[in-house]
Amino acid sequence: MRKLCSCICFWMLSFFFLRAAEPVWVNDSLLLGDDKTESYLPLLQGKRVAVFSNQTGRLSDGTHILDVLVKEKVEVTTLFSPEHGFRGNADAGERVASSVDPDTGIPILSLYDGKRPGPSDEAMRRFDVLVVDIQDVGLRFYTYYVTMLRLMQRCGDFGLQVVILDRPNPNGHFVDGPILDMSLKSGVGALPIPIVHGMTLGELAFMATGEGWVPPCGLTVIPCSGYSHQSFYKLPVAPSPNLPNMASIYLYPSTCYFEGTSVSLGRGTDHPFQIYGHPDMEDCPFSFTPESRPGAKNPPLLGKLCHGVDLTGVSLADLQRKARIDLSYVVDAFRRMKDKDQFFLKNKFFDLLTGQRHIRQMILDGHSAQEIEATWKEDTARFREQRRKYLIYPE
Question: In what order do the strands lie in the sheet with 275-278?
Fold first, then answer.
């Protein structure tokens, strides 16, 4: 009997800890900004409206924001599309042509066509209010917020209103990384903020205007309800082709730097940002071969057998608890490479992603990930204080 009770207790404890290790998502208990139609539709009545969105701009019931506005007889004159296009199926960095939405006939003006950094004067004269409804992932090198800031600046130039329908940040539960050296400002880094800033687009917009990083515009943010910076939000729609699941989104802050190296981070496989490897890393038991596929038509190391590391076995709960940038993956790959001179072939882009030049040099000099990560801790702490007055949601 005692043995039976012990077994039952062990099973119950095991069940408790297994359950405790499962992520707890807040999706069902919150309202997104775009769910609050009563808060933003009155702002749009009688106005010509432009929408900056993509496939992620959906209410909690799955209805796209464009369909909501059209149904409510809002005069939508223009659609702006970011990197990956309005439907979200273009490769990273791929130029996306302007087009027309087939369901509504509304013109889609691409902001990623390679012709100009922002919309033309002609495009700006087509509308009175810009509605922003797009899912960001909370990293300085993710391009959606950069596009939003360019639109805000142009709206400020033309005296137009901006309404942001706020959404949770899936990496909003922590802040980490070096502050951007503004001499490295680029399309993958526009503000002097850490790599992981922990803010929603609405909060980031308030901070960008409040700190004078972008000129002021008529800014309104419709906030989420039931969200805090300790909430875990599971994205219902992939924000871009190579961030297909929550594991990729949680690993993204630690593995994206491979974009600035000769190492593959899994583009052209089922697990982008969740594996890494190179033909020169022969001492690794795991291997994969990148192939051409939608969203990764010409991935790095296409068709080459890569040896490397598989991170797909790391649980979401562990990734949530970790909640930091982990440079050990990049340091590990550098140490495994036989020809280290080939590692930083794209060194300028590596610096643009990290936002600093010393990180690459410290890797070359043989420093550990912990030593490198320690160099930005004070900057991160200062930023947390700097951003506090702009936060909409509890920390």
Answer: 275-278, 306-310, 286-288
Instruction: For the chain, give every domain's residue range.
Output: 27-222, 246-364
How far is 210 from 52, CA to CA, in rounded Å?
22
**Token pair of 166, please?**
């706020």
Common-topology check for domains 27-222 and 246-364: no
Helix axes 201-210, 144-158, angle to 10 degrees: 50
SS3 helix, strand, coil % of the chain, rounded to 5? 35, 15, 50
Gap between the Cα atoms of 89 and 111, Å rounded: 15
CATH of domain 246-364: 3.90.1150
Q: How many helices (H) and strands (E) does the chain have?
A: 13, 10
The per-residue DSSP string of 90-108 comes to SPTT-----EE-TTT--EE
Q: For 326-336, what is each residue's pLDDT tens digit?
A: 999 999 999 99
R_g (Cα) of the chain, nearest Å: 22
pLDDT digits (tens, 9 = 90+) for 245-282: 999 999 999 999 999 999 999 999 999 999 999 999 98
CA 218 to chain centre: 25
- Give the predicted TM-score (pTM) of the model: 0.90
Say how far apart CA 58 and CA 167 lie, in whole Å.
10
The contacts of residue 4 (CB under 8 Å, 6+ apart) are none
Ramachandran category for residue 223: left, alpha or beta (phi over 0 → left; psi -120 to 50 → alpha): beta
For the 27-222 domain, the top CATH level (class) is alpha beta
User: Which residue pairs from 117-122 have beta carbons closer than 8 angstroms and sit at least 24 positions apart in sequence?
Assistant: 117/150, 118/150, 118/151, 118/153, 118/154, 119/80, 119/151, 119/154
